Amino acid sequence: MTNSFAVHIPDAELEPDPLDPAQIVSGSPEVSGKVLWESPDGRQVRGIWQITPGVVTDTEADELFVVVSGRATIEFEDGPTLEVGPGDLAVLREGDRTTWTVHETLRKAYSINL
């Protein structure tokens, strides 16, 4: 794929990306995604990610994302709580330790810097 492209995010087909069972706090959340572009050095990644309802923990990368559909509450260890839904843009900082409570299957477009 070239560096310039367009994707209709709601209809994009995603591939399963199983969670580490240690990340699951409750429920049976399932993750899927698709990398749309990666820099030659692997330090920048752009794509689509989806998670079904449940509660999971994560240690974040430096990420900017926009929620396309669904809703979640993101709690930061020793920090704020974000409520995100369709149309919301969020920024996560590398090393943030989070707990995601996914209320409705959430799909987002993301850009990560590693």
Number of helices: 0
Which regions are unreliable across 5 or more consecutive residues at pLDDT < 50?
Answer: none
What is the overall silhouette?
globular
pLDDT averaged over residues: 96
Overall number of strands: 9
Overall SS class: mainly beta
β-strand amount: over 45%
Distance between the termini: 21 Å
Order of helices and strands: EEEEEEEEE
Cα gyration radius (Å): 14 Å
Percent of residues in helices: under 10%
What does the largest sheet look like?
A: 9 strands, antiparallel
Question: Can you put this structure into words, describing what you see?
Answer:
The protein contains no helices and 9 strands. It has strands at 15-16, 24-26, 31-38, 44-51, 54-59, 62-76, 81-84, 89-92, 97-113. Strands 1, 2, 3, 4, 5, 6, 7, 8 and 9 form a 9-stranded antiparallel β-sheet that branches. The chain is globular, with a radius of gyration of 14 Å.
Q: What are the main properties of this structure?
A:
114 residues; mainly beta; 9-stranded antiparallel beta sheet; 9 strands; 0% helix; 59% strand
In brief:
By secondary structure, the protein is mostly beta strands. 0% of the residues lie in helices and 59% in strands.
Helix/strand layout:
Blueprint (H helix, E strand, L loop, with lengths): L14 E2 L7 E3 L4 E8 L5 E8 L2 E6 L2 E15 L4 E4 L4 E4 L4 E17 L1
